[in-house]
Task: structure prediction
Amino acid sequence: MLNVLRSGGHMMPEFDIHLQCTVCEGSGKIENLRHGVDAHGPWVDITDQECHECDEGFRYVGREYYDSVTDLKADYPESMVLRI
Ligand SMILES: [Zn+2]
Result:
């Protein structure tokens, strides 16, 4: 009589987790504001730069196991998840 308990036998779904970038607030772009004063007076120059902290507004966090998206969102409220 052998009762084998399999460890890791529960099938938890696996998720790819991306978090919204806090640097560019998920826009993927950063406003680069330059300003100064020259002979004609003060000037402002605004250019959009690609955010180097993320990929189009989202940063890849990693791959984790959760019972459900609800559980995952409890840990990562601002996340975008992909169920694998
Ligand atoms: Zn960013």
